[in-house]
Amino acid sequence: MSLTVYAPASMGNVGVGYDLLGAALAPIDGSLLGDRVSIVSSPAGVSLDVEGKWADKLPPNPEENIVYQCALFFMEQLNIQQGIALTLEKNLPVGSGLGSSASSVVAALYALNEYFDTPYDEQALLRLMGKFEGQISGSVHYDNVAPCYLGGMQLMLDTEHKVCGSIPSFENWYWVVAYPGISLSTAKMRKLLPAEYDKSVAIEFARNLSAFVHASYRQDAELAISVLKDVMAEPYRASSIPGYELAREALDKLGMLSTGISGSGPTLFSVTDSLETAEAAQAWLDSNYVEHGVGFSHICKLDALGTRRID
């Protein structure tokens, strides 16, 4: 038996929902923006090969790779003696703000669960994904792994019985994402944030997020855009992302509706309901924000499918 799993890139926070909102991304050109993990049977033990554009950015020792560690843990927990050989196709840059570590972890654990006849249900598997992704990012939060796994836009609930719930998206929105070509540590970017927030900031954050969720269910795009802002992280991170503040101003002048930092950055996202405006924004970003040959940009819709088998 063999199988291959694809796990899409994702935006954590989506600006308005720090640690509580995330969305999966699907480029409109049909390309697959995310990592892939393949599994085939092997005589004994666990082995891992790594390939793909960003493979050289990962530890050269396979045992230090999170995909290998996922496999070892999964098989030890279930006392599985069967040998397997995994291949990770690393298609997302590390430290990009596109859920790179989440994509690898989700693809690996989804593939393992499928290969061994789904011993974990959806919620148990999601919690396991969060645990392993947290080993890389520095803390357990689900705003990348949940949308990467389940697709669409996900609101973190983190109750005893349910990690997250999907909320409606705006089907006519285009999400332009641009990765400039540098890497930023999620853990280090989190350290830029204050240990405590003023009460007025906490209230504004809660108001904006609740209004965005309300607007999503009402399909009130005007209201959703008006509150799609980041008062928790962007004020402290923007200056640490080269060119971000200039890009945000330029995108606003081009007519983009809202711009924010994807996850911890340096990838930015910008929203519009016009394909023509999205294309103009992408052209500006390719010329002024993205390092040629290293970074990239995509015009996306939200990926409604999430992680899936593609073999």
TrEMBL record:
Pathway(s) the chain acts in: Amino-acid biosynthesis; L-threonine biosynthesis; L-threonine from L-aspartate: step 4/5
Residues annotated to bind ATP: 93-103
Domain GHMP kinase C-terminal: residue ranges: 233-288
Keywords of the record: Amino-acid biosynthesis, ATP-binding, Cytoplasm, Kinase, Nucleotide-binding, Threonine biosynthesis, Transferase
This protein's name: Homoserine kinase
Residue ranges constituting the GHMP kinase N-terminal domain according to the UniProt record: 65-152
Signal peptide feature range: none
Similarity field: Belongs to the GHMP kinase family. Homoserine kinase subfamily.
SUPFAM superfamilies the UniProt entry points to: GHMP Kinase, C-terminal domain (SSF55060), Ribosomal protein S5 domain 2-like (SSF54211)
Biological role: Catalyzes the ATP-dependent phosphorylation of L-homoserine to L-homoserine phosphate.
EC number(s) given by UniProt: 2.7.1.39
Location of this chain's protein in the cell: Cytoplasm
Primary residence: cytoplasm
Catalytic activity: L-homoserine + ATP = O-phospho-L-homoserine + ADP + H(+)
Presence of the UniProt keyword Nucleotide-binding in the record: yes
Pfam families the UniProt entry points to: GHMP_kinases_C (PF08544), GHMP_kinases_N (PF00288)
GO-annotated biological processes: threonine biosynthetic process
GO molecular function, one term: ATP binding
GO CC aspect terms: cytoplasm
